[in-house]
Amino acid sequence: MVDEFTDLIHWSKDNYESLPWRQNRTLYTTLVSEIMLQQTTVGTVLGKYAGFLKKFEDLDKLANATEIELREAWQGLGYYRRAVNLHKAAKFLHENGFPERGDLLEKIPGIGPYTASAIMAIGMDKPALAVDGNLKRVLSRYFSIATPYENGLDDEIRDLLNNKDFSDVLQNCGSRRINEALMDLGREVCRVKNPLCLMCPLSKSCKSFKNGTAEDFPVRVKEKNKLILLKLARFVTLKSGQVLLYKKRANEWLESQWELPTGILSCEDEKLKQYPRVEDKFEVNTLIKTSITKYKIENYPIFLEAESLKNEVPYFNSREMEFFDLKRLPLVSTATEKVLRKLKIL
Ligand code: SF4
Question: Phi-psi category of 319—alpha, beta or left, where left has phi over 0 and alpha has psi -120 to 50?
Fold first, then answer.
């Protein structure tokens, strides 16, 4: 097994060693790149990474950044929740430094199990597996692991650290190299559909390739839940090139992000409490589609003056609200950005 993984590492080095986050690596650059690369393609991150580091060259600069500066540098990467998390983590790490244990890293605000493992494995080159969709797909195929994706596969993959053969591989090839090479393989070769097994460096020892069952892994048992329809009024209040936003609280969707004031026009889920109910109060027409968790969202923009908003929807009298210059927005939710762009306000 060590031989095939050594071939894999050579393949990865030959093809992807020049990725900028693999040059002059520090724990800080690993933190930045690993958070950027979640849910975003390598191509998109390539266009943003150098500029971001130029602006925030170290933890000190990032920890002291304003939300507006952070959004400017993050714009184009989407999912601002990751920028919120990165900022939180930077503030903590600037004060306290990087702990050298995965369980301690996971306790840091903004750092979840994936980022903690990535810092351990890639930043510190210590035995760990940064288990994302790519690693789950490659390793469940390679070892023919039938544990369902939604129910235990993460743990099963992490448990490979206790597998004698695989820990020999980690020891011989290095944790950083193995993680990076598996990420490259999952992204470029061991694809969800039509994996390119004939050009895969692991094909000689890959169990599911031998059995002709590659696409049966990872096993999925969960039937796709039907999405619930949620119709939202998005109140757009403009004043001299500024837009009115409110800040999401810690116990709400999109924690710490800013959003257009929002109300529920209708929802198939009567228990949903994320926004005030504003049924039947407004005429709506323009429709912009988004989604969050199990909800399929129809957004209906409604233009209102600030006073009218507070009269019509008193809920917003008790919320933290602020007008922001449209050219210098803070970290806004993806849906808010989408609505403002569709309306050609941004
Ligand atoms: Fe994936 Fe095929 Fe390589 Fe196995 S041989 S790891 S299934 S690409």
Answer: beta
